[in-house]
Write a structure and sequence with these properties.
The complex is a heterodimer.
Chain A lengths: L1 E9 L10 H20 L3 E6 L7 E5 L5 E4 L7 E10 L3 H12 L13 E7 L8
Antiparallel strand pairs in A: 1-5, 1-6, 2-5, 3-4
Chain B lengths: L1 E8 L1 H8 L3 H21 L2 E7 L6 E5 L5 E4 L8 E9 L3 H12 L13 E5 L3
Antiparallel strand pairs in B: 1-5, 1-6, 2-5, 3-4
Classes of the chains: A alpha+beta, B alpha+beta.
Amino acid sequence: MKYILMMNTMRAGAGVPSWPKSDLQAHIAFMRQLNVDLRDSGELVTAEGLSFPEQARQVSAGKDGVPVTDGVFPESKEFLAGFWIVDVDSPERAYAIAARVSGAPGPGGAPLNMPVEVRPVMSAPPPEMV
Amino acid sequence: MKYILMMSGTKAGVGGYQAWAQSDRDAHMQVLGQVMKDLTESGEFITTSRLAGPAQATLVRGEKNGLPVTDGVFPEAKEFLLGYWIVDVATPERAFAIAGRISAAPGPGGIPTNVAIEVRPFMQ
């Protein structure tokens, strides 16, 4: 079963945290180790970090199909900061991995305990639709 | 440059889509399928996924002892990621053009949904 683990952040909280360098390094080391462990267990499908909200654009099609871009988002909008896709045997295993992500260390090494959204991933559109 | 194109919606929006006529849903998926085919041919396609609906979303936090605490309650207004495309393109404009095409996929009665697609580069 494939699951996506999504780390969301508000616009206000987005960006490189203003933590002491050693805390940032500990956080990054934690995330790297997580990815190594998931790769070793064969559960990691993909993991990506996204750029910050300043670089996000909303695109809609204009009447003639030409893209209309807009960089203005509501302050309260949640931004996806990064995600993991894992292939696991049970939802409980996906939740356990999400809990590990959630417990990544923050300032002073205290776990952030940030919420991580977990959802099953479906397949691409069925071939008969293509 | 790698970009992610994200289609999001609220619980109400997802319910609305499920109420579309089957033929409208088929026409919508056919256009998205064609986009995928074209991106594969141009060598810009990396991956796409559809996510299960908000009803299957779970919020997980690590407890003090590291054990997961799960919660399925989300605010009604929360935007849910419905699906995404990852593309490798030469310019941001190209990413916007692809997003525009996805946005123009037909909705009920064949009218373009013009849904807003969030486009963001990956971290280098």
